[in-house]
Amino acid sequence: QQQVKQSPQSLIVQKGGISIINCAYENTAFDYFPWYQQFPGKGPALLIAIRPDVSEKKEGRFTISFNKSAKQFSLHIMDSQPGDSATYFCAASGVFPNDYKLSFGAGTTVTVRA
Amino acid sequence: DAGVIQSPRHEVTEMGQEVTLRCKPISGHDYLFWYRQTMMRGLELLIYFNNNVPIDDSGMPEDRFSAKMPNASFSTLKIQPSEPRDSAVYFCASSFRGVGYTFGSGTRLTVV
What we know:
The complex is a heterodimer of chains A (114) and B (112).
Chain A: E1 4-7, E2 10-14, E3 19-25, E4 33-38, E5 45-50, E6 56-59, E7 62-67, E8 72-77, E9 86-92, E10 103-104, E11 108-113
Parallel strand pairs in A: 2-11
Antiparallel strand pairs in A: 1-3, 3-8, 4-5, 4-9, 6-7, 7-8, 9-10, 9-11
Chain B: E1 5-7, E2 10-13, E3 19-24, E4 31-38, E5 42-50, E6 53-56, E7 65-71, E8 74-79, E9 88-96, E10 99-103, E11 107-111
Parallel strand pairs in B: 2-11
Antiparallel strand pairs in B: 1-3, 3-8, 4-5, 4-9, 5-6, 7-8, 9-10, 9-11
């Protein structure tokens, strides 16, 4: 069963708009939450990651919001650009030296219309 | 660094044939992961290694699948015999202490 549930499956946003992707998890042992971006024909690439000791992390136009009590986290893409069109995966794991194999969400295909 | 290198990029084989996928991780990384990606099941972890030792192979779908890591710079995933349902994109990823996986470009396997 999928340990990380991701929604929506796909979304379309206008250039300059905000894309929001949500993820939820059950395993309270998870303490590392990365987001990956994947373009067609390529492998997933690490975009941004957060640990549960902070509620928000921002890198450029990408922001992760984390709600530990609700066991939810989300990715916000601000000022979306056509080059952001890709599939985004949330993931979760423990951290070294515990079990930290990444469990991935099902992915969200983001299309940014010019 | 050239990143994680996988070969071949594409593989088309007939059902029943043996298939070997190859991966060269990033130098200095101590963890190596094999994932499979399909539309139906998304990204599934098949097996991972730490310092060349298999740690968890619970994701390997059946005995037809095997993986080895003879040294720190090379790993293989073998399917014997292959079946059409094995068709997928297979990714290798490496990391240092489990943080920030770097994925290869994948091998697209088609079994006809």
